[in-house]
Amino acid sequence: MIEDRIERFRNIFEGLDRAHGVTIVGESNGNGQKIKGKSFVKREIVTPELWLKHLQGTENLGIIPINDNNECKWGCIDIDFYAEFDHKKLINKIKILNLPLIVCRSKSGGAHVFLFSLNYVSAGVMQDKLNQIRSVLGYGGSEVFPKQRELKSKDDTGNFLNLPYFNGDDTVRYAFDDEGEAASLEGFYKLYETKVVTADIVESLEIKRPETPYSDGPPCIELMAQNKVGEGGRNNALFHYGVYAKSKWPENWKSKLVVFNETAMQSPLTDAEVDIVKKQHDKKDWGYKCNDQPMCSLCDKKLCKSRKFGIGQEPIFPSLTDLQVVNLEEPYYYMNVDGDRLYLDSAKHLANQTLFQEECIKQLRINPPTLKTGDWKKMTTVLLSNAEITEPAEGTGTKDILKNYLEDYCVNRIQKDDFEDLKNGGTYTKEGFHYFVFDNFFHNYLSRKHWKVPYQRTSQMLKDYFNCTTKRVGKHKLSVFVITRFDKRPETYKSKTFRSTNY
């Protein structure tokens, strides 16, 4: 039965039930580049109809894995890859490591690597395990879901992942079996039964990293050596490696630099380019270039800090990702800072680095180092251009709040006896209309409510949304706003009939 099919799928991908993701898909242009789509969060209950529409292929469903208890039953590594991706090679890596993972083809042609739990596990634990797994698999820069260890409030919705099996068996988002062959939806259910583990197993999962000559240094160096560095990142990579080599081999680091250039690059740099890096390190002792590519896409900060020649206590700017904009007149924001959730109540925290640092200290108890002004602007520009738009909860939008304030002011505040009294505040009601002075409403009422929308914009909102007009009234031609009278319904009381009592 279709109900059983839906319920089975829902039980596997259960997540936050008060919101879900919607994606208008961007297609590949055929050259390995993706045309950007549009993603946003809907604050709507995830109904059985939405699950059905997903499996029928009529409406894509994105699920947020973390729930309001900051727990989850699944997590995913999103390997974003738009050229031809070798899923079988990835599956073989997973087999060798003996990890209970299921690989699905993503809508872009990359891979979604799922870890499923029979019962709820802490989102922080799931995130930690998947961070370790992605690094071992050689995809340290890939996104991990859940993207946050906790939700800040019932207003926070986290980030969603588009689910597999959109349009059921007729889909490009299918799972692969252990042989690397496409699995039907029923085949996926059978595969799930063999891979799903308990929360205890997730928590105790050991991810063994193969020993390499660089296992005492930054994990990104291991991955660069393993996957080879392409053009565009070679100079940064060699400079970064130079910091490690100089610390580990202070007497012969230059020869080690030459070896790394010959073995870790898709095509080695010229001798002249290598000499420039040597001269840079001869002049002074540098720190690691963690915020530069390709290192920042291969980073595992937690592991790096534990290694002898890792970053240690070196101040490293945290990874800022997944900016969410709550779509209000005066928007507020959520983002992930090294996987921890940060709330920003104003755009000024993105425009001003010092204010951002203050919020990190207050909420996360970390103090990010100061970036150059140009680097900070570049980083925030990228965050904003890739931001996910979230609609506010019903009844909490700026328009809704203003309407409530306006009604309170017109109905419950002091009622004046004539037009002439309005200059001192309050409302005059006559013949089905409220009359008030906007200056008084804005400065004496809204300001006490911590209203953040500017004066001119608020005035325009009253006209656009509530059909307010302006008029000059009274003998002094006082300028007032006029709005149709709010329907103040009288309270009605239902009479109660008492049983007759004989005394």
Q: List the total number of helices.
A: 17
Q: Quote the CATH topology of the largest domain.
A: DNA primase, PRIM domain
Kindly report the spatial arrangement of strands forming the biggest sheet: 1-2-14-11-12-13
CATH class of the largest domain: Alpha Beta
Structural class: alpha+beta
* SS strand fraction: 15-25%
User: What CATH architecture of the largest domain do you see?
Assistant: Alpha-Beta Complex
- Distance between the first and last residues' Cα: 65 Å
- The rough form would be described as globular
Secondary-structure topology with pairs:
Layout: H1 2-12, E1 20-24, E2 38-42, H2 48-56, E3 62-63, E4 71-79, H3 87-97, E5 102-105, E6 111-122, H4 123-137, E7 143-145, E8 161-162, E9 175-176, E10 182-183, H5 185-195, H6 199-204, H7 219-227, H8 234-248, H9 253-264, H10 271-283, H11 301-306, E11 320-326, E12 332-337, E13 340-344, H12 348-351, H13 353-364, H14 373-385, E14 388-390, H15 398-412, E15 428-430, E16 433-436, H16 438-445, H17 455-466, E17 469-473, E18 478-484
Parallel strand pairs: 2-14, 11-14
Antiparallel strand pairs: 1-2, 3-8, 4-6, 4-7, 5-6, 9-10, 11-12, 12-13, 15-16, 16-18, 17-18
Helix pairs in contact: 1-2, 8-9, 8-10
